[in-house]
Amino acid sequence: MIDLVDVGRLALGAAFGTAVLQILLSVLAAVRRMPELAVSARNAAAVQAALLTVAVAGLAAGFLSRDFSMAFVADHSSSAMPVGLTIAALWGGQEGSLLFWTWAMSLFAALASRRMLAAHAEAGPHGLAALSGLQLFFLGVVVFTSSPFQRLVAAPVEGRGLNPLLWDSGMQIHPPMLLTGYMSFGIPFAFAIGMLTAGRVSQPWLREMRDWMLLAWAIQSAGLLLGAWWAYRVLGWGGYWGWDPVENVALLPWLAATAYLHSALAQERRGQLRAWAVGLVLLSYALAVFGTFVVRSGVLSSVHSFALSDVGPTFFVFVGALSVLSLALFVYRLPSIRSDVPIASLASKEAGFLINNLLLLAIAAATFWGTIFPMLTEIVQGARIAVGPPFYTQVNVPLLLAVLGVLAVWPLLAWRRTPPRAVWRAARWPLAAFVGVSALLALLGMRDGLPILAIGMTAAVALGVGLEFVRSLAGSLRARRASDAQPGRYLSRHRRRLGGYLAHLGIAVFALGVIGSSAFGQETAATVRRGEAVRLGGYDVVFQGLASGAQPGLTTVTAVVDVVRDGVVIDRLTPARRIHAGWESQPTADVAVSTTLPRLDDVYVLLSSWDAAGETATLRVLVNPLVVLLWISGAVYFAGVLVVAWPSPRRSPAEAPDAVPAPAPS
To answer: Is 231 in a helix, a strand, or coil?
Structure first.
């Protein structure tokens, strides 16, 4: 019989040794300029990925075979768990999630290492050295500090199982998506470090860095949206974002990456904001690792974080060393990467990108400050002072509205300089949409300023995007009439720009959903008998009775309620409470949600308590308007991302400028 613990330990040890060999080969290849060593380092990355795949397969096999002699399997699974959740338990604890992170990074690194050598033979080994250094750290943590391959002296008959909050289909997709998002920021980081250490800049290298950053940003976006969806459906508090520290640190690298993508576009088109682009890549990964430190150290209280553990100090040192070394290298190379092309006018696309960057970084700075403030006050004053949602609402919502204002106008401007008359022509219709919609809402009786501004800004962005599509379509038609033009070539050539506008529209709809649901949401709780109703927001939630069920390790109590509007039953919901064996002190809510159209309301019902006879129940009812816009905006947003990321023919070598040595700073 195969000993899975020994297989896992052997695979991890061999992967660690391969990582040491890889970093030695890549450093020698960079210093001595020996391309054959760089090829060997690239091959070592593939071997490392294969070994880590064996380790992950071994741990997965332990879960599927219910091998409770493995400590990690016993702590995070049980025989009562279905197969899907049993596999998802692999990342349900600290050791397994770190192994998943390291394995996913090895797969990305194996592919990225080939792209590095293909993009630039001289800078490639430097990038490989940076990439192998990151992988070596995480492998070291998994092998020496937080290994999932620990054997119990006496195996229990039954495992403890996952925390009941994790018994959900979202567990199978949200955590791995977010872990992959965090991890994937390391690839563009390695490209940036490789470029800075080699002191050479090339367009193929910058394009590769941009493509990997776009991938990391898209994965993190999906992870954040899935996290909001999971929190809304599972945690039972009626919201989707609570400004929890772990939620905040997941948002931080996304904000920096969003700013980067705008800087990268200005760098490609105008040769501007190059230093911004490189600095934001470094910042994104530093924030991703900081987020990992917060989640795994236990220094900040969060429903999402792991308990206080030994890896916290290790990650703290890593975050500090990474930040200091990255900043020092960036400052050293700054004279050579700074753009020589100034921003000529405030009325230009590139100026809009810079303003957008500043606003996004302001949101990131405010969120970072609010996240670490409790920790700082505990260090300085000895007492932890919590920062709640009101702080983030007061600071970040105005900044978000300012971002929407930039999205509505600046993308319509020209590169370099836009004449005043052209500025007015570009801005007048979005401005008219904003003023007209805001005035109409005020006339209809709406008095809350934030929703008025949000809806008005969304209308302005939507009209701006529509105008750009119309202009692009007109340009395509003109191109078709040209004798030398192929049909659709114009739209194909401007695909990335149009996809970006579609993503902007998704962001605007998302902002509308966030601000609208926060402003107009209603909530109540009541104890009702059979046939009685809870009335809220024009809806009657009628309690029809209780049902109970039991299966090994699980007891469920379900309420049956009808959602009624204007005397008509529009939906039947079954909110429930689950009580898991071994977790009796933590009964878990199964939320029931009914989305009504065309009103865009969510009727959100929870079962809080009940009597033994099943005649009465206490229901918590919320009416959340516009939350559905969050999920709709996600579809619009990712459609734009797909359009932007759709592969296009690479430029010919003649079109791509050769790499030139970056002058050493004086």
So the answer is: helix
